Amino acid sequence: MNKLSNWFLRMAALYLILGVSLGLFMAASHDHSMFPVHAHLNLLGWVSMSLFGLFYRAFPQAAQTGLAKAHFWIYVPAHFLQMVFLTLLFRGNTQIEPVLGVVSSLVGLAVLCFAITVWKSTRLAD
Ligand code: HEM
Ligand code: HEM
C-alpha cells in the first residue's frame, strides 16, 4: 500500500487529461494565448506528479515521512490554485499576480520538500 504514490499518479492522469484537452482546444481554435497554462498543466501536473508518484513507488519508506506528506499537501492544492490564477492572469486579471506569486512560491516550497526527501532516501539506499 502506497497511498501517496497512488494519489500522485491519479492526480497526474487527471492533469494529463486537462493539459491535452487545452492543447487540443488551442490547436483547434488557433488561439494559443493560454499556452503557458497548457505547458504547466502538463509539466507541473502530468510530468512532475508522475515522477513524484514513481519515485514514491521506488522508495516506499520515503512516502511514510512527514516531509513527503508536506510535499503532497502543499504541492497539490498550491499547483491547482496556481493554474486557476495563471488562467485568470492570462484572461486579463492582472491584479491576481501577487497571489499567483504566493501559490507559486508554495509550489517551490513543496518541490524543496521533495528534493530533500530524494536526497535523504537515496543516501540511505547507497
Ligand atoms: C494532443 C496533445 C497536445 C496538443 C494538441 C498540444 C498543443 C499545443 C499547442 C497548440 C501549443 C502552442 C504552440 C505555440 O503556440 O507555440 C503547445 C505548446 C506546448 N505544449 Fe502542447 N499539446 C499537447 C500535448 C502536450 C503534452 C503532453 C505536453 C507535455 C508533456 C505538452 C507541452 C507543451 C509545451 C511545454 C508547450 C510550450 C512550448 C513553447 O514554449 O513554445 N503538450 N501545445
Ligand atoms: C513554481 C514553479 C514554476 C514557475 C513559477 C514557472 C514559471 C514560468 C514562467 C514565468 C515562464 C515564462 C512564461 C512566458 O513567458 O510565457 C515559464 C516558462 C516555461 N516553464 Fe515554467 N515555471 C515553473 C515550473 C516549471 C517546471 C517544473 C517545468 C518543467 C518540468 C517548467 C517548464 C517550462 C517551460 C517548458 C516553459 C516555456 C513554455 C511557456 O512559456 O509556458 N516550468 N515558467
Please characterize this protein's 3D structure.
With 126 residues, this protein is mainly alpha-helical. Helices cover 83% and strands 0% of the residues. The chain is built from 4 helices and no strands. It has helices at residues 3-29, 35-58, 66-90, 97-124. The protein is globular and about 50 Å long. It starts with a helix and ends with a helix. The mean pLDDT is 97. The structure holds protoporphyrin IX containing FE (2 copies). Residues 19-20, 23-24, 26-27, 32, 35, 38-39, 42-43, 46-47 line the site of one protoporphyrin IX containing FE.
Q: Topology, pairings included?
A:
Elements: H1 3-29, H2 35-58, H3 66-90, H4 97-124
Bound molecules: protoporphyrin IX containing FE (2 copies).
One protoporphyrin IX containing FE (HEM) binds at residues 19-20, 23-24, 26-27, 32, 35, 38-39, 42-43, 46-47.
